[in-house]
Amino acid sequence: MTKLSRRFFLQTIGAAVASTVVGCTSKPILPVQGSAKRHIRLAFYTDIHARKEWDTPEALAMAAASINAQHPDIVLGGGDYITDGFQSSVATVAHRWDAYMKMHNNIQATLFPAIGNHDLVAALPEDGTPAAEDPRAIYLQKMGLARTYYAFDTLGYHFIVLDSVEVTGGKYKYRGFISPAQMEWLKQDLAALKSDTPIVVITHVPLVTAFYNVTQGVEFKPRPNRVIVNNKEVLELFSQHNLILVLQGHLHVKERYQWGNTTFITGGAVCGKWWRRGNWYKTKPGYNLITLNDNHVEWEYVEYGWQPRRP
Ligand SMILES: [Fe+2]
Q1: Number of other CB atoms surrounding residue 123 within 10 Å
Q2: C-alpha of residue 113 to centroid of ligand 1, in Å
Q3: Which sequence spans correspond to the domains of the chain?
Q4: CA–centroid distance, residue 33 to ligand 1 (Å)
Q5: CATH of span 3-20+34-303
Q6: How confident is the model over 143-201, as pLDDT tens digits?
């Protein structure tokens, strides 16, 4: 992110999110250069799982350079920027944030992040250290955000970034869930839109996926921490709106699914198979390049060339 765009981001998104919290509905309009209205090139990268081992900081530098070489209008982040924040102490993951923020700061276009389950820090620590009062605090501070969910407009598109993680404890520790407060905010946000405005949603945990149908069979029920459990209620909010694209992470597979006028893309992973050698269901380390032209979605999964070295 350039100095100018970072300053702009912090001032506009930070201020807009802060003002939305206190009830103001104004949203920033970003002065993105390069593409005509209703035509935009996006890079979407997800599931980085930054750490220091296995030369992975080198991979992150390669991924950032590859994204920059595409000259996207904006860049969207799908979450899980670091490894295992959720069950670790703040001190344990500090160096992983350092590794990730190098990549983050190297991205030249304005970057809009969504939170992943690994980005909560000390939600349920397993080493006996106390749980964080707000496990999202470090993420918010690193990203320069006042809130994990927000919306913005650019080039004729409305972007909605969701927080899809709810800490539950118990067997699964968390679940994919859009909170009641977020649902209320979403209703208000959509009410201010024209019904034909094209909308893009970014969420870490998938709203819709065929991954389990294909890999486990159609009768398999995914665990509640694999998908958003209230996905139907969320999608119903969009029934009178023009939701053209949902960008998702979490599963590390590349997948495109069309339901009605909505395209769902699960965006693979920068870390591929959690930095292990080989592919994860035919998906190599990569990110997504997406061109939107009015309501039309073009998608390419770009492998940036990293050969994993995890033993
Ligand atoms: Fe995840």
Answers
A1: 21
A2: 14
A3: 3-20+34-303
A4: 32
A5: 3.60.21.10
A6: 999 999 999 999 899 999 999 999 999 999 999 999 999 999 999 999 999 999 999 99
